[in-house]
Design brief:
32 residues, mainly alpha, 47% helix, globular
Length: 32
């Protein structure tokens, strides 16, 4: 793990570049 905090904190305000990249790579349901 590279982040500490609640799930909400990590998903809404990731601080580590690795976590940011992981979240950016997840396909979104609302995108075409």
């Amino acid at each position: 793990l590279v982040e500490q905090g609640t799930a909400e904190q990590i998903l809404t305000r990731p601080e580590h570049p690795y976590t940011q990249a992981l979240l950016a790579s997840v396909p979104r349901v609302d995108s075409p």
